[in-house]
Specification:
Blueprint (H helix, E strand, L loop, with lengths): L1 H23 L6 H27 L1 H8 L8 H19 L8 H21 L5 H26 L1
Helix pairs in contact: 1-2, 1-6, 2-3, 2-4, 2-5, 2-6, 3-4, 5-6
Length: 154
């Protein structure tokens, strides 16, 4: 289930939303503006909202399967990470209603996903879930950085 959710929220739904909106909009928005909008909403919003909820309710999954920590000593820290993910996820999800949230949440998402992806890459143990987290984290970070560059030069 983890694999399906991550692939949907970090690849399929953001890219699909960009394509659908670009093809169906009466006034076509630039591709890169749509990349920012939909990656912030799906990956920075819904994914972090779901991940945060799970980290608060079931911290052992993130500790063991994603971070590779078997000890229960890390569970309170994972729950605090979950609270931070919930906060960021709520703000990014609200970007669909408040478009002014897209730019700041793209900055937050690029930093978070870029840092997390690099941390996963530097790890010594790479399970399938860790590789998936690393790949999708770096993909989302790259999409958001491209959007941020677009905004900086537009």
């Amino acid at each position: 289930m983890y694999v399906i959710i991550v692939l949907l929220l970090c690849v399929v739904l953001p890219i699909g939303s960009v394509v659908v909106e670009h093809e169906s909009a009466a006034m076509t928005a630039p591709w890169l503006a749509l990349v920012g909008k939909w990656f912030v909403f799906w990956s920075g919003g819904i994914r972090l909202l779901l991940a945060g909820g799970r980290q608060v309710a079931q911290p052992r999954f993130t500790a063991k399967d994603i971070l590779g920590i078997a000890s229960d000593d890390a569970l309170p820290l994972v729950q605090e990470l979950g609270i931070a993910n919930l906060a960021a996820g709520i703000a990014a999800t609200l970007s669909i209603v408040f478009p002014a949230f897209v730019l700041p949440m793209a900055i937050v998402g690029a930093i978070f996903y870029g840092g997390a992806g690099i941390r996963h890459a530097l790890g010594t143990r790479h399970t399938f879930n860790q590789k998936l987290a690393m790949a999708t984290d770096l993909l989302v970070a790259a999409a958001l950085v491209v959007y941020l560059i677009y905004r900086a030069v537009a």
